[in-house]
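Sample pair:
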Amino acid sequence: MGIAEDVESLRGNWSSLSKTSKVMFFSSLALSFLSIASLADGVHKMKGFVAEAIHFWHWIGGYAAETALLLDIKIEQWQLDYWAVICLVFVPYTIERWKVFGVKGNLTRLGLFLSALYMPFVKGQFYSMNVAGLVYVSTLLVILCPPRTAAFNFIAVRMVVPPVGVAIVAAIVEGLSRPI
């Protein structure tokens, strides 16, 4: 029975319901709103979790940028983010399909990968980050669309596990840094 049928049934039988039934109906409606409010709390906690993971990733990226600066290479945080996303797209797929592509296909993918790594130096931050996000999401969607094989599932796992792993490590570091 759908919601529309429930509303019509309630509207038709409202006058015949007892006061207790009406109170129960309104209390159930109020409890439904409370569960929506607790959903907002869960989303707020998740937002904090994601923000902490991004902060932790930028902390790691700061060390990488400082190391590159010792070699007189100036790297900004957004470039590290871009390269991480591009590596999450190209590397798992190429590792899984290496034998299938052959030498020519592998050289083509290597050229695409190197040109994608060079993009932040040619294009600006806005364009590069949008391309990286679009490539990551579209590749993940294509890999997860049916018909899937175990190999494609493994590629998806390789694309998702590193960001989730960073988030888990960030949560552990945050938990350990809080006072008892």
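The two ends are 51 Å apart (CA to CA).
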